Amino acid sequence: MLERVAYSAAQRLRLSWYGGQKWLSARLTGPVALPAELEARLPDRARLMADLGALLEQDWRNIAAGHYLLPEELAVRPLAALRKAGRYFADLRRVDERRRSAANDEVFRAAPSGRYPRYFLQNFHYQTDGYLSRRSAELYDHQVEVLFGGGAEAMRRQALVPLKRAIEAPGVRRARLIDLGCGTGRFLRAVKSNYPRLAVIALDLSPFYLDEARRVLAPWSRVEFLAAPAECVPCQAASFDVATAIFLFHELPARERRQVAREMARLLRPGGMAILVDSIQLGDVPDYDALVEYFPLAFHEPYYAHYAREDLAALFADAGLALEESGVGYLSKMMVLRKAAQAGI
Ligand SMILES: C[S@@+](CC[C@H](N)C(=O)[O-])C[C@H]1O[C@@H](n2cnc3c(N)ncnc32)[C@H](O)[C@@H]1O
């Protein structure tokens, strides 16, 4: 009972904090020019808030059912939060200037040639330095939470439910997990808070985001960090019980999306589980289709429009992973996929 009250109070505070900054950001940056037809179809705030509330309700039910612990990010650290917000607003003008001039190649012009794939060298979301600076890595999670009005962590946590099933399954001992495109390690922090002894690999192309992940995951042992492309992972085949990709697929070009799905299948042992959490796609929540069309217009997301139409179940099936379960939580969808118990499917 006391936990429920604490959870609700902390979430209310979070939603006001990030929702308030979302509101203020919209005032400071002005509207994105949209076709009137698209604007007319956008869902209203009340609908979005109701669905965000439903996600948090589900999050609480998962905690109460013992699927995972009360998350530690609910404990607010006011000074750190204020500092992050200050830096976010200081950077917002630059993000908005990029949006207005559709400037997305600063990273490409500044990056050493040959070190990263070309598609990665963009100012995704029009963010300063793209994924390639410490400053960007330090701001990223705040930017994402503002974008989702405080719901990002709860969307990621949906993956903890099938994860528990996977690593507590009979016969699974000393499980290993790899998180592809781990970013700053927020999902892995939730994983390690619940399973401190689980061996995990945090993989990302950005060494700067990995450095931030190192800081976030410093309290735990059995964490390895790999700066590598998810489409060509330097790890043995069949060496993981679980492979996760959280908000990665919508940022990949079509060809790399297929390669990463194949890598997930290769990395998993027979019977292993892949878990994907990513943006909803067209048709997942028909009332949100306009929002899915709007997103790549307002934020630099060069591969999102194609992602939104991709048949992910078919893409994974081609890679050797069969869809076991899928569901929607606020603006995200989760897919649970399984490699056949016998190799060679
Ligand atoms: C939208 S962020 C998601 C980060 C994190 N999983 C989360 O939940 O916030 C995408 C991340 O994927 C990384 N990334 C993008 N393309 C990649 C690739 N081909 N291989 C590995 N990491 C990649 C980026 O550096 C970034 O950290």
Number of DSSP-assigned strands: 7
The class by helix and strand makeup works out as: alpha/beta
Low-pLDDT parts are: none
Helix content: 40-55%
Q: Give me the Rg, rounded.
A: 19 Å
Report the sheet with the most strands, covering strand number, pairing sense and barrel closure. Answer: 7 strands, mixed
Average pLDDT metric: 93
User: Order of strands across the widest beta sheet?
Assistant: 3-2-1-4-5-7-6
What ligands does this structure carry? S-adenosylmethionine
Task: State the separation between the terminal residues, measured CA to CA.
Answer: 48 Å
Helix segment tally: 14
Strand content: 15-25%
Q: How would you describe this protein?
A:
With 345 residues, the chain is α/β, with parallel strands linked by helices. 49% of the residues lie in helices and 15% in strands. The chain contains 14 helices and seven strands. It has helices spanning 2-29, 36-41, 45-64, 78-101, 106-110, 134-147, 152-157, 160-167, 186-194, 207-216, 254-267, 289-298, 304-309, 312-319, and strands at 176-180, 199-204, 223-227, 240-246, 268-279, 321-329, 332-339. A seven-stranded mixed β-sheet has the order 3-2-1-4-5-7-6, sandwiched between helices. It is globular, with a radius of gyration of 19 Å. The N and C termini lie far apart (48 Å). 41% of the residues are buried. The structure holds S-adenosylmethionine (SAM). S-adenosylmethionine (SAM) binds next to helix 9.
